[in-house]
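# nightly structure sweep
# worker-07 picked up a monomer target from the shared queue
# config: single-sequence mode, recycle default, output format = structure tokens
# input follows
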Amino acid sequence: MSTQQLVLSLVLATMVFSVALELRLADFRHVADAPRAVIAGLLPQFVFLPGATWLATLLLDLPPNTEAAMILVAACPGGSLSNVITHMGRGNTALSVSISAVASVLALILTPLNFTWMVSTNPATAGWLRTLDIDASSIWWSLLALLAVPMALGLWVGHRFVPLTQRIRKPLGQFSLLALLAFIVLGLIRERQLLTIHLLPQLGIVIAHNAMGLALGAATAAAFRVSRRDSRAIIIEGGMQNSGLALGIIAVQFNADLGMVIIASLWGIWHIVSGLTLAALWRRQDARLGT
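# output follows
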């Protein structure tokens, strides 16, 4: 593992650990209290967006590494930023946290399962993976190191050392987020020769892909007839995938393939832009309605 891969893995593990420090059993109990809303938040992440992405990659004639990156991002759970964006947009933050908590656990099984199935049934990506001699099932090991271990450790520390957790939770979360953003920005700077007009197609793909996730979240919320605040949480959860986790898997399992890194990095930047834009629009809407 290169130094770059090791640093990114440590940053992502720290981010997951800091998020796990904030999780409580009450976050998981919300599943029993409001199962319909939680299910509505999970369906876009693990069923609708992956399925729609798989169909899109079959229909579009894109480079195999671009299609593989799209599939990987779609197969990842929602990121921790979704909770912050939901709060800023005056959505149901408790529901957002509950969905994220359950999604992080389900991702240990569903992310590699979805990814392996989708890339193996897409002729372009399946042939590309065979050329690289990559076993897609090895993503389970990445998720174990990047997600399961730091999450279990964070839950244990949060329960066992409450005073320490209260002191380090916020600064550790801020540090890990800034470190991930810095890693993405520095990576783009290092490959700045690629930041030309020729990158616009990839950016367009990311914008359309993210919009599809948000739209599927909105459609699911409407179908389940949840409240406005719940709907906002579900929309954000549908459109904010854990692109950081995708970057970590790409670094470890795909030798930091440049085409995949570009897609995941652009996702990491764009979904923040789209999420903050939605939050601002919702706040303005509330102000106009006096709610």
